[in-house]
Amino acid sequence: MIQALRGMKDILNPDNERFIHIINTASRIAERYGYQYIETPLLEETALFKRSVGESSDIVGKEMYQFIDKGGHDVCLRPEGTAGVVRAFIQNKLDKKGGIHRFYYHGPMFRYERPQKGRLREFHQFGCESFGEGSVYEDFTIILMIKDIFDALGIGYTIKINSLGCPECMPGYRENLVQHLHGIQEELCEDCQRRIETNPIRVLDCKVESCQNLLKSSPVIVENLCEACDSDFNTLVKLLEAHSLPFERDPKLVRGLDYYTRTAFEFVSSEIGAQSAIAGGGRYNRLVEFLDGKSTPAVGFALGIERIMELVKMPEVSREGLYLGLMEPEAIETILQLAHQQRQHETVYTEYNKKSLKAHLKAADRLGAKRCAIIGEDELKAGEIWVKDLETKEEKRIAIDQFN
RNA sequence: GUGGGUGUAGCUCAGUCGGUUAGAGCGCCAGAUUGUGGCUCUGGAGGUCGCCGGUUCGAUUCCGGUCAUCCACCCCA
C-alpha cells in the first residue's frame, strides 16, 4: 500500500470541517480589517528564502524541500508565507506605487523536520502581511485581529511580546550581548557557542537550563532600545493593557526568522503539547529592501492551522439536506431527476440501490439529512413520493411534480 | 539528525509463559418489525497478528534487522 509521505496528512472526515471553518473565520475577520486575498506560488527560487528567512536559521539551513528543477533552477517549496508575499509585493511594483497594502493568504508550507505533536512536514498557515504602515498602531491592530480570530474560534491563549529594536539600536545591543556571551562562552551549550557567531540573539531563547542560568545577567533588548523603538514598545504595552489583552513581556522571545524588527509577538496555548506557539509574527521593516524593493515598513503574522484544529470549538450543526432513495428499481429515473432539481438549492444524498425503508432511514439519519424521501411500490403506482422530516418526525406523501 | 514508546478486525485495545479454530467493545450488514431512523435483542461479514530474516518439530508470541507511526530534543506555526 502506498501511503502519504512522512509528516504529510490527508484532511478529511470530521477534520475538514474544522479546517475550513478556521480559514473562513480568519478570512472573514481579515477582510473586516481591510486585508485582501493573495495567492502566491508554493514553489519559489531558493534564493528568496535564503535572503529573507536568513541563512543562519534552521529553516534555511536544514529544513527546506530544496531541489534543482529540470531547467537547472535551484528552487524550493515555501517553508513559510511571508517571503513569497513580499516578493509579490515588490514584483508587482506596489513598493513604488506607495500607499498601504494589506494581504491575507492561507495554504500549505513545507519543512523537512522530524514530525511530532503539532509539527508536520506539510502544514497549513493562515497569514496576513501589512505593507506601508510604520505606526505601532498597526502592530497593535494586527494583534487585535488575531485576538478576534481566536475569540471567534473559541480558542484560549496568552500573548508574548518583545521588541527586537531597529538598525539604530540593535547593532549596539548585539555587540554588547556578544561581548557578554564571550565572557561565559566556555560554559554555554554547544549550540549556543555556535549561535554566538551566527545569531547571538537566539542564544537568549535557548531551552537548555544551564544556559538560562548563565543568561540571567545578560543584557535585555527592551532595556537597550533607542528612543523611537522604546516609545513604540511602551505604546504597544499601554494599548494591550487598555484593551485588557492577556500578555506578558518575554525578553527571550526572538522570532525564528531573521527579518523581524521592533515588535515581535507570539500567541501560545498550553493545551497542544511541546509545540505551543499557535501564531507568531511581528514587524519587519527591512525585509522589503533586503529583497531589492523600495524600503517599506511592514508587519505581519501567521497562525498554524493544524496546531489550532483541536482547540477550535465548532458551532452546533443541525440536520441539513435531503436523502433520496427507492424501494423499486424502476424509480431510479425519477430519483435522479429529483436529485438534480433539489440540488439547485439544497444538499442531496442519493442512494441508487433498492433498500428496505428501514435501511434508507438509517442511512439518512447517519448522513445527518433533514429529510428522507423514498419512492416505494405504492408511491411508484400513484406517481407520488413519501417524505419524512427526521427532526419533527412528520411524514407525508405528495405528488412527484409537487415535490420541492 | 538524536532519544524513547507503539505496530493484532474499519476504530479502540485485550491475548498467546512458543502449539490445532486469535478475542472483546464500538462500527458495518442482515433479521426480530412483508414499508418507519436514534433504543434493545439475535445472527453475520471482516485478520498475510507491519515487513524481512534467524532460532525452533512448530513463531502472531522469542531474537535481529527494517519500515511505519507517536512523543520528546533541536527548531518552529
Name given to the CATH architecture of the largest domain: 2-Layer Sandwich
Give the low-confidence spans: none
Count the strands? 16
Query: What does the largest sheet look like?
Result: 8 strands, mixed
Strand order of the largest sheet: 1-5-6-11-10-9-7-8
CATH superfamily of the largest domain: Bira Bifunctional Protein, Domain 2
Structural domains: how many: 2
Distance between the termini: 45 Å
- Give the helix level as a range of percent: 25-40%
What does the overall shape look like? elongated
Structural class: alpha+beta
**CATH C-level class of the largest domain:** Alpha Beta
User: Might you state the CATH topology name of the largest domain?
Assistant: BirA Bifunctional Protein, domain 2
Name a few traits of the molecule.
404 residues; alpha+beta; BirA Bifunctional Protein, domain 2; Rossmann fold; 2 domains; 8-stranded mixed beta sheet; 5-stranded mixed beta sheet; 15 helices; 16 strands; RNA-binding
Structure notes:
This protein is of the alpha+beta class. The protein folds into two domains: 242 residues, BirA Bifunctional Protein, domain 2; 81 residues, Rossmann fold. It contains 15 helices and 16 strands. The chain has an eight-stranded mixed sheet, with helices on both faces. β3 and β4 form a beta hairpin. The longest helix is centred in the first third of the chain and has 20 residues. The radius of gyration is 28 Å and the shape is elongated. The model has no long low-confidence stretch (mean pLDDT 91). The protein binds one RNA strand of 77 nucleotides through α3, β6, β10, β11 and α12.
